[in-house]
Amino acid sequence: FIAFAAGLRIAVLPLSSPFEAGKQRSFEYASILRLIPLSTSLVILVRLSGAAALPNITTIILLSVGILSILSGLLWISRERMVDGLPFWIISASALSLASSILGKQAASLTWSITTLMCVSLLILFHTRRKWAGYIMIFGLLNLSSIPLFAAWKGILLYSPPVPSTVYIYLITQGLLVAGYYRYIRIQERGKLGAERWVLLVYPFGLALLPVIHFILANFGDQNYLTFSIKFPGIIYEFWPGVAAVLLALIFWLLYGRYQTFMIRPLSWLGSFFSLGWLYRITKTIYTAADRSLNFGNSIFEGRGGIFWSILLLVLVIALIIQT
C-alpha cells in the first residue's frame, strides 16, 4: 500500500497542482513544485526495495508499469516545450526506479532515482547557446545513458538475471528518455545570462556541478561500486543494456524526425488521456451533481416551508388539539 501511495504521489495526484493553478509561475518554480513530491516518493521506493514485491503478480505489475512508461516516453519525446514534457519524464524515469524496487534491486532503484532528479535538473537549468554548455549537457546525457563508467551504469542491475522477460521492455523506455533528452538539448529555449560578469563565471560552475556530482555519487558514493565488474556475471552484461539503450535512442530519434507529422494527432490524443484532465472533469461533474442534490434535498427538508417544519407544525397542532 505504501508503494502504491508513492506511485500515486509521483504521477497521479501531484499535490503541487493547487499552487501551479493559482497564478502564473516561472518554469523553474513550477519544476521545483513537481520535483519535491517526486524526490520524497523516490526515497520511499528505494527503501521499500523488495518489501513491496508480490510474487504472484510481479510479472503483471512490471508489464503494466513498462507499458505506461513507454507511452509516457513517447509523449516525453514529442512535446514542443520542456515544461510540457516534464510530467512525462517523471512518469517514465521513475518507472525504472519502481521496477527495480519491485524486483528487490535496491542499488538499481537508487541509481535510477538519483538519475531521474539530477538529469532533469540539469536540463531545467540549461539556458545558453554557448559551446561549453553543450559539452556539459552531453556529459549529462552520457550519465543518463547507462554506458559503463558513467552515472547510470549501476542501473543496468535492473536487467541482471534472474529477472522476468518483461523487464527488457524497459530498455525501450531508456531509449525514449535518452532520445527525448537529446531533442530538448537541441530545441530548448535559451535566454540571456545577464549583463553582470559574475553571472558568466558562476553559471558555468553551477551548471557543471550537477553532472559532476552525479558522476561522483555513482562512482564513489558506494564503496562497492568499483568492484561492480568483478561481482557481475560476465563482461557482456556490463555493456549491452547501455549500448542497447543508446542504439534504441538513435532509432527513435531518426523515426521521430521522419514520421513526426504522422504522430502529432495520435500523440495529442495520448497526451490528453495521460493528463488525466478527463478524470478530473468527471470527478468534478460527479461532485457538483452530488452537491446540488444535497442542497436541493436540504432545501426541501430543512428550508423555509420544508417538510421538517411542516411536520413539526403538524405535531404542534395535533398536540394542541389533544390538550383542548
Structure notes:
By secondary structure, the chain is an all-alpha fold. It is built from 13 helices and no strands. It has helices at 2-12, 17-22, 27-47, 58-78, 82-102, 106-124, 131-145, 170-187, 197-220, 228-231, 235-274, 277-302, 307-323. Helix 3 runs antiparallel to helix 6. The longest helix has 40 residues, at 235-274. It is elongated and about 100 Å long. The termini are far apart.
Task: Furnish the topology, listing elements before pairings.
Elements lengths: L1 H11 L4 H6 L4 H21 L10 H21 L3 H21 L3 H19 L6 H15 L24 H18 L9 H24 L7 H4 L3 H40 L2 H26 L4 H17 L1
Runs with pLDDT <50, length 5+?
Answer: 18-22, 224-236
Percentage of residues in DSSP E strands: under 5%
Secondary structure tally: strands: 0
Let me know the average pLDDT. 76
How helical, in percent, are the residues? over 70%
Number of helices: 13
Rounded to an integer in angstroms, the radius of gyration calculated over CA atoms is 26 Å
SSE order, one letter for each helix or strand: HHHHHHHHHHHHH
Reported for the largest beta sheet, the result is:
none
Secondary-structure class = mainly alpha
Distance between the termini: 66 Å
**What is the overall shape?**
elongated
